[in-house]
Amino acid sequence: MFRTSTASVLASSARMLRQPLSNSTSTAAAPFMVRYKNAAAAAATTRLFSISSSTMSPPPPPQYSSSASTTADAERHPRVLVTGSLGQLGSGLVKELRAMYGNENVVASDIRKAPDEFMASGPFVYADVMNYSMLERIVVDWRIDWVVHYSALLSAVAEKNPALALSVNMAGFQNVLELAKVHRLRLYSPSTIGAFGPSTPKINTQDLTIMRPNTIYGITKLHNELLGEYYREKFGVDFRSARYPGILSADTPPGGGTTDYAVDIFHHAIRHGHYNCFLSKDTRLPMMYLTDCIKGTVDHLTHPTPLPQSVYNIAAVSFTPEELTKEIQKHLPHFTISYPDSAGIDFRQAIADSWPSSLDDSMARRDFGWKEEYGLEKMVKTMLNKIQAQVEAEKKSANNDSTTAAMAA
Ligand SMILES: NC(=O)c1ccc[n+]([C@@H]2O[C@H](COP(=O)([O-])OP(=O)(O)OC[C@H]3O[C@@H](n4cnc5c(N)ncnc54)[C@H](O)[C@@H]3O)[C@@H](O)[C@H]2O)c1
């Protein structure tokens, strides 16, 4: 049941993500050097990873000569595996965990090739969450203690490919949950506001309420919540989950969710001065800035004692596209926005309409001290500043390129 791995699903997964599949026959078996940048890595300077020619054999963990290897087990930092670490949320979380526990103690993974700077900051391995043996090999080889499970297909992508969403979101989760049971791992796997449904009370939605999701994303996530709770009760698995709202980030692009408009709008505002929104102007949804999401996740993940419940709502701010536009216009008065007319309603409107507009997260505040730092005003200012800086850097780099080309001609 848990060992799902079929060529067709994998091929479909790779196509969906517009990435080539890792191919066992094309992967070179040569070792290569990885240089670490931060302080924790300074002691270890450079390390060797050998890339295996078999997809069943991830690179072996490095042999440490630093203090980490001589520290008693009881005192050592937890070793954390992050799945889906190249997505919108994963890279920021990996960075934060590496700063806390040392680069070598946080193993990032995904089914896509990592950018150079990501490879340079610590261990990265290929891990397809639909392959139980592959995951188990990583857990054993790297002596993993905790898994943060971020691999998933988000709401809009899942709705376009329900079969793949069932495989990645459910079978993938079942694999990591079973691993958590067998190897006594702590498992953090986020849920979503998408796990609620149209019959859920919309305002200040509580942790425990009516849950009848009508999207494939929501169904898979609710399945995961319930299964995680079952494993916690039945087998004592330390399963932790928070229902994230829509997450805004400037550095990493969103992965195909219904709340993506709240990121896209900033790029369009700065680059084009206009945005065609795919949601109606009064669609109110809960949202959060990435920094808050990472902090809340780390606080939840690292909470030392068992928590009274497995799954928590966490929330920061709720707004509509119209309210967000007004806040952006305080900084960019000429920015304009248009909304779909009745003939052009986007399929994501129905998804958004089935979700709550605000959450009650008092249990998370009580149990692990959840508290957001970013309200609408601070979030908008930060997003605009960061994206403006990116645009200026792009212009500078384009100018340098054209100067170099002109000099070469
Ligand atoms: N971003 C949000 O706004 C948001 C909101 C609510 C919940 N969440 C949840 O947070 C988690 C992370 O979300 P995200 O925004 O970073 O998603 P994302 O789509 O940006 O990234 C998901 C990652 O999973 C990887 N992946 C896909 N199939 C895989 C497979 N078979 N094996 C291994 N990896 C695979 C992808 O390559 C991708 O890098 C997900 O569980 C998501 O449901 C996100």
UniProtKB/TrEMBL annotation:
Region listing for Disordered, in residue ranges: 52-72
Matches recorded under Pfam families: Epimerase
Catalytic activity: L-threonine + NAD(+) = (2S)-2-amino-3-oxobutanoate + NADH + H(+)
Domain NAD-dependent epimerase/dehydratase span(s) in chain numbering: 80-315
Annotated InterPro entries: Epimerase_deHydtase (IPR001509), NAD(P)-bd_dom_sf (IPR036291), NAD(P)_epim/dehydratase (IPR051225)
GO aspect biological process, one term: L-threonine catabolic process
EC code: 1.1.1.103
Listed GO MF terms: L-threonine 3-dehydrogenase activity
Domain of life: Eukaryota
Pathway(s) where this gene product acts: Amino-acid degradation; L-threonine degradation via oxydo-reductase pathway; glycine from L-threonine: step 1/2
Enzyme class: oxidoreductase
Entry's transmembrane regions: none
Family membership: Belongs to the NAD(P)-dependent epimerase/dehydratase family.
Protein purpose: Catalyzes the NAD(+)-dependent oxidation of L-threonine to 2-amino-3-ketobutyrate, mediating L-threonine catabolism.
Official protein name in the record: L-threonine 3-dehydrogenase, mitochondrial
Source organism: Mortierella polycephala
